[in-house]
Amino acid sequence: MSNSIVCLQETWALNQTKIDNCIYTLNKKIFSRSAKKDSDQGRPSGGIAFIVDKELKCTFIDLDERVNVLIVGNLAIINVYLTYFDASDRNKFEYTSQIELLSQTVQSQFNKGNEIVILGDFNTDPMKEN
Fold first, then answer.
1. What is the pLDDT of residues 15-27, one digit of tens each?
2. How far lies 16's CA from each of 29, 84, 104, in Å?
3. C-alpha–C-alpha distance, residues 36 and 46, integer Å
4. Is residue 43 assigned to a domain?
5. Residue 92: inside a domain
6. Matching Pfam families, A to Z (predicted)?
7. What does the pLDDT read at residue 64?
8. CA 54 to chain centre
Protein backbone atom coordinates (compact mmCIF):
# COMPACT_ATOMS: atom_id res chain seq x y z
CA MET A 1 0.00 0.00 0.00
CA SER A 2 1.28 3.45 -0.88
CA ASN A 3 0.21 6.90 0.26
CA SER A 4 0.35 9.95 -1.98
CA ILE A 5 0.59 12.38 0.95
CA VAL A 6 1.87 11.83 4.49
CA CYS A 7 1.80 14.52 7.20
CA LEU A 8 4.35 14.40 10.03
CA GLN A 9 4.55 16.27 13.30
CA GLU A 10 7.39 16.39 15.84
CA THR A 11 10.17 15.63 13.39
CA TRP A 12 12.71 17.14 15.84
CA ALA A 13 14.93 17.83 12.81
CA LEU A 14 16.81 21.13 12.99
CA ASN A 15 17.31 21.46 9.22
CA GLN A 16 16.34 20.00 5.84
CA THR A 17 19.50 17.89 5.66
CA LYS A 18 18.52 16.07 8.85
CA ILE A 19 15.05 15.42 7.39
CA ASP A 20 16.55 14.14 4.14
CA ASN A 21 18.98 11.86 6.02
CA CYS A 22 16.30 10.40 8.27
CA ILE A 23 13.43 9.91 5.84
CA TYR A 24 14.27 7.69 2.88
CA THR A 25 11.64 7.78 0.17
CA LEU A 26 11.48 6.76 -3.45
CA ASN A 27 9.61 9.00 -5.87
CA LYS A 28 8.64 11.41 -3.11
CA LYS A 29 9.44 15.00 -2.26
CA ILE A 30 9.59 16.38 1.25
CA PHE A 31 8.34 19.80 2.29
CA SER A 32 9.22 20.67 5.86
CA ARG A 33 9.74 23.27 8.53
CA SER A 34 12.58 22.65 10.94
CA ALA A 35 12.17 22.18 14.65
CA LYS A 36 13.65 24.74 17.01
CA LYS A 37 15.90 24.33 19.99
CA ASP A 38 15.32 26.76 22.84
CA SER A 39 18.15 25.62 25.11
CA ASP A 40 21.49 23.81 25.02
CA GLN A 41 19.99 20.80 26.77
CA GLY A 42 17.34 18.38 25.60
CA ARG A 43 15.98 17.73 22.16
CA PRO A 44 14.55 20.21 19.69
CA SER A 45 10.82 20.78 19.73
CA GLY A 46 8.40 20.82 16.86
CA GLY A 47 9.12 20.33 13.22
CA ILE A 48 6.46 19.42 10.68
CA ALA A 49 6.63 17.90 7.21
CA PHE A 50 4.69 16.66 4.21
CA ILE A 51 5.94 13.68 2.20
CA VAL A 52 4.35 13.88 -1.25
CA ASP A 53 4.46 11.87 -4.48
CA LYS A 54 6.88 13.60 -6.89
CA GLU A 55 4.34 13.63 -9.73
CA LEU A 56 1.61 15.24 -7.60
CA LYS A 57 1.15 18.89 -8.54
CA CYS A 58 1.02 20.85 -5.29
CA THR A 59 2.00 24.09 -3.62
CA PHE A 60 3.64 24.20 -0.18
CA ILE A 61 2.93 27.20 2.07
CA ASP A 62 5.32 27.50 5.01
CA LEU A 63 3.48 29.69 7.53
CA ASP A 64 5.54 28.97 10.64
CA GLU A 65 7.14 26.10 12.55
CA ARG A 66 3.75 24.83 13.72
CA VAL A 67 1.33 25.46 10.83
CA ASN A 68 1.96 24.59 7.16
CA VAL A 69 -0.36 24.13 4.20
CA LEU A 70 -0.22 21.91 1.13
CA ILE A 71 -2.51 22.88 -1.76
CA VAL A 72 -3.47 20.05 -4.12
CA GLY A 73 -5.96 21.25 -6.73
CA ASN A 74 -8.77 22.80 -4.71
CA LEU A 75 -7.85 20.95 -1.51
CA ALA A 76 -5.95 22.71 1.29
CA ILE A 77 -4.31 20.29 3.71
CA ILE A 78 -3.33 22.10 6.90
CA ASN A 79 -0.68 20.30 8.96
CA VAL A 80 -0.47 21.50 12.57
CA TYR A 81 1.64 20.79 15.62
CA LEU A 82 0.34 23.14 18.28
CA THR A 83 2.18 24.08 21.45
CA TYR A 84 1.16 22.07 24.49
CA PHE A 85 -1.05 24.39 26.51
CA ASP A 86 0.23 24.52 30.11
CA ALA A 87 -1.53 27.79 31.15
CA SER A 88 1.72 29.78 31.66
CA ASP A 89 1.60 33.36 30.34
CA ARG A 90 4.25 32.69 27.66
CA ASN A 91 2.50 29.50 26.63
CA LYS A 92 -0.93 31.19 26.51
CA PHE A 93 0.47 33.77 24.10
CA GLU A 94 2.09 31.14 21.83
CA TYR A 95 -0.98 28.91 21.84
CA THR A 96 -3.39 31.79 21.20
CA SER A 97 -1.17 33.05 18.37
CA GLN A 98 -1.13 29.60 16.76
CA ILE A 99 -4.92 29.26 17.04
CA GLU A 100 -5.29 32.70 15.44
CA LEU A 101 -2.93 31.74 12.60
CA LEU A 102 -4.86 28.51 12.08
CA SER A 103 -8.16 30.42 12.03
CA GLN A 104 -6.84 32.98 9.53
CA THR A 105 -5.45 30.19 7.35
CA VAL A 106 -8.77 28.33 7.30
CA GLN A 107 -10.64 31.54 6.43
CA SER A 108 -8.14 32.42 3.70
CA GLN A 109 -8.39 28.98 2.09
CA PHE A 110 -12.18 29.00 2.39
CA ASN A 111 -12.30 32.42 0.68
CA LYS A 112 -10.25 30.96 -2.19
CA GLY A 113 -12.90 28.25 -2.63
CA ASN A 114 -10.72 25.42 -1.38
CA GLU A 115 -11.90 22.37 0.51
CA ILE A 116 -10.05 22.17 3.82
CA VAL A 117 -8.61 19.28 5.82
CA ILE A 118 -6.86 20.01 9.13
CA LEU A 119 -4.70 17.30 10.66
CA GLY A 120 -1.88 16.96 13.08
CA ASP A 121 -1.13 17.13 16.75
CA PHE A 122 -3.31 19.71 18.50
CA ASN A 123 -1.81 18.98 21.94
CA THR A 124 -5.22 19.57 23.44
CA ASP A 125 -7.22 17.81 26.08
CA PRO A 126 -10.86 18.89 25.69
CA MET A 127 -11.59 17.68 29.22
CA LYS A 128 -9.18 20.17 30.83
CA GLU A 129 -10.57 23.38 32.27
CA ASN A 130 -7.64 25.54 31.03
1. 777 776 767 778 8
2. 12, 24, 27
3. 7
4. yes
5. yes
6. Exo_endo_phos (PF03372)
7. 87
8. 19
Buried b vs exposed e over 17-55: b needs ≥16 C-beta within 10 Å? ebbeeebeeeebebbbbbbeeeeeeeebbbbbbbbbbee
CATH code for the domain in which residue 95 is found: 3.60.10.10
pLDDT tens, position by position, 86-128: 778 888 888 889 999 999 999 999 999 999 999 999 887 666 6
Q: Quick check: is 50 in a domain?
A: yes
The dihedrals phi and psi of 111, each to the nearest 5 degrees, come to -65, -25
Q: Give a yes or no: residue 26 inside a domain.
A: yes
Q: How far is CA 46 from CA 11, 13, 21, 112, in A?
A: 6, 8, 18, 29
pLDDT tens profile 58-87: 999 999 888 999 999 999 999 999 887 777
Number of domains in the chain: 1
pTM for the structure as a whole: 0.84
